[in-house]
Amino acid sequence: MTKTTSAPAPVLGTRALNRATLERQLLLRRSPSTAAAAVRHLVGLQAQNVRPPYYALAARLDGFTPDALSRLMADREVVRIVTLRSTIHTHTADDCFTLRPLVQPARDRELAAFRTGLAGVDLDRLAALVRELVEDEPRTMAQLRAALGAEWPDADPQSLAVAARCRLPLVQVTPRGLWGRGGQVALTTAEHWLGRPAGPAPEPETVVLRYLAAFGPASVKDMQTWAGLTRLREAFERLRSRLVTFRAEDGTELFDLPDAPRPDPDTPAPPRFLPEFDNLLLSHADRTRIVPPAHRGRHWQGNQAYRTLLVDGFLAGVWKLDGQTLVVEPFDPLTRRARGEVVEEAGRMLAVMHPGTSYDIRFGTVRA
Fold first, then answer.
1. How high is the pLDDT of residue 254?
2. Fewer CB atoms < 10 Å away: N or C end of the chain?
3. pLDDT in tens, 33-81
């Protein structure tokens, strides 16, 4: 009897992974998709600050205007809520209810780190009190700390606020998050804001498929990094017969959807101006598909992330708006052709995000 052996999984090089990821992220070519469809496809947009989701969609969508996302937020079709990686994301209303229960184990772990400051606090009672407060009217974190501190004067105020956020799905209400509008962070429950009850947590397999559609091909550790969760291997294994597998150059097993796009590694990738905290740079354990090893960590300083520039699909520099000037600071010298393409893309981005305002575009010194 002849013993059959399965063929080794094909190897995907760095450029192949880069082009596949850019295509899934709507960055290889701009999509005609609506803002709502894009937010859903991308499984949310990281949004510690108000503006990044707007710049993220401007880089990805053809015909996008900031008002398109603002309207969705004002109409409560998208919301700002702490989900993946314990950070604020802009999600569709449906995904708010889907993803928040999925990442509850991570919220429980986060809460456990504050147990010293919560000694003697009945967390069920705290959750009930917070729900009553924020559903009566949206409250700021300062107001919640004051109210909870009056109830538990010996507890740590910051720990009490963290407990509120971890135990309840608290969304930021508008006008916070609207383009061109100010407003401090005020919170209420997702159920109250959206007018419907939350459902059960989804099966992890459902979210694995969505992650791969937006970020694949990817490893188990990649998705765990994106979600801020552990123990997702079993979900991938249950899906194995429905997926295809590859190997990265270092031997890591990568999973993907059979029919997902995997463009030729030599497909041209135009420059793109991305906001700080863009999901593209944060959603894999191995980020070399976007961040060359020589540039690792160069788009961060402490806890501050810079706005980033992609050239040929890879991190190539940072940028900023300084008054009426857009300053591009490349990490390496750019060719004349690349500089021309970067200037063209900068002009397009500025016309979308700041119409009617005149900006100079200049290149700063190459960052050492």
1. 98
2. N
3. 999 999 999 999 999 999 999 999 999 999 999 999 999 999 999 999 9
Q: CA dihedral in degrees (84, 87, 92, 93; nearest 10)?
A: 100
Cβ atoms of residues 256 and 217 within 8 Å: yes
> Residue 355 burial (CB < 10 Å; 0-12/13-18/19+)?
exposed
**Cβ-contact 257, 216 below 8 angstroms:** yes
Query: What DSSP assignment string belongs to 70-111?
Result: HHHHHTTSEEEEE-GGGSEEEEEHHHHHHHHHHTHHHHHHHH
Question: Which residues touch 84 (CB under 8 Å, ≥6 apart)?
Answer: 44, 46, 99, 103, 226, 227, 228
Token pair 């409560």: residue: 76
Q: Which helix (H) or strand (E) holds 301?
A: strand 300-301
Q: pLDDT tens digits for 219-237?
A: 999 999 999 999 999 999 9
Could you tell me where the DSSP H helices lie in 139-296? Answer: 141-151, 157-167, 190-194, 204-215, 220-227, 233-239
- Cβ burial 299-309 (10 Å sphere, 16+ → b, else e): beeeeebbbbb
Give the tokens for residue 132. Answer: 């009553």
Cα–Cα distance between 151 and 5 in angstroms, integer? 66
The DSSP result for 143-172, as a single string, is HHHHHHHHHSTTS-HHHHHHHHHHHS-EEE
